[in-house]
Write a structure and sequence with these properties.
With 120 residues, the protein is mainly alpha-helical. Helices cover 73% and strands 0% of the residues. It has helices at 5-26, 43-56, 60-84, 88-93, 95-115. The longest helix has 25 residues, at 60-84.
């Protein structure tokens, strides 16, 4: 299966969705659902498994991306735990860490997308 720019755009949307949902948790709008932090159940993690890996499974960048997503999800889970323990300001301050992971993920997605030949 050939990857397209649309595939990578879907990944970017899924990452924004995660950040939005996490922010909602840390601002008390919604409860932290375990699947939000599970790479198997998280939309971006699912995209890696169902779209990216079948096309580029041997790429070191795919493994790096998967690792970064796992780190971002774990950090998000820790922030949600802090919030639930009443450490509200500390949990919200941790969103900077999530944004740093997001920037690294975006850079990897850009490299992967640049390596995909249009129409291939």
């Amino acid at each position: 299966m050939a990857l397209t720019s649309f595939d990578f755009q879907q990944a970017r949307v899924k990452q924004v969705l995660f950040k939005s949902r996490l922010r909602s948790v840390l601002y008390g709008v919604r409860e932290a659902e375990p699947e939000l932090f599970s790479i198997r159940d998280n939309p971006l993690g699912q995209w890696i498994q169902t779209t990216l890996k079948p096309a580029l499974q041997t790429s070191a960048e795919v493994r790096d991306l998967e690792h970064l997503v796992q780190q971002m999800l774990q950090t998000g889970k820790e922030l949600a735990t802090r919030y639930s323990r009443g450490q509200i300001e500390e949990s919200r301050a941790g969103l900077d860490q999530i944004n740093a992971f997001a920037a690294q993920i975006e850079a990897l997605l850009n490299r992967l997308e640049a390596g995909v030949k249009p129409g291939a």
